[in-house]
Amino acid sequence: MSDETGERFCRSFANDRKHSGAFYESVESCLQHCGVPEKIVVGLGPGSYAGIRIAIATAIGLAAATAATLVGVPSICAMATAAREYLAIGDARRNSFFYAYIVDDRCVEGPVLFSAEELSDRLAVSRIPIYASSQLPAFPRAVTMHPSASRLVSLAQKHCDLYSPAPILEPIYLREPHITIPKFSSRAFRK
Prior knowledge:
The structure is a single chain. By secondary structure, the protein is an alpha/beta fold. It is built from 4 helices and 7 strands; from the N terminus they run H-E-H-E-E-E-E-H-E-E-H. The chain has helices at 20-34, 49-66, 116-124, 149-158; strands spanning 39-43, 69-73, 85-91, 97-103, 106-114, 130-132, 143-144. A 5-stranded mixed β-sheet has the order 5-4-3-6-7. A two-stranded parallel sheet has the order 1-2. The longest helix has 18 residues, at 49-66. It is globular, with a radius of gyration of 19 Å. It starts with 19 loop residues before the first helix and ends in a 33-residue tail after the last helix. The mean pLDDT is 85.
């Protein structure tokens, strides 16, 4: 983000659940340093289920309070790399991994889910860089790389046609919601 003088403001913090408080501290510092935003850019994932939803909810709340324009960008397109094309992979839990192919800041394939074996087969034939936002021992070729907030903003500016303002922002979900409905028990209604 830039302040009224054009000075760039950026803050980074560890990508760790224990550091989630740093997110709100960074947002507060940004607002104090730069003032009311005209545009808010947020990563849509895939990533930490709670983290992505918290980021989107915060962006929606700030936009409502400030009348700023909202723009969502897939986080996997904003890896802090100069590579023109790369693969982004990640642990999708439940014995599956996601895979996406990014070319020129656009996700041209995926994200799709694979088993470890299927993903290993897919990666074995690839010669382009492979990035993951956390260490994945099953995939030693994957370099740990995180999405960059600065790059998210840059992509939103560079590709206005692709990442245009959106009235509703949705996280990039990797699978349909999994909900367990409790079995009906007549005892629950007895006094």
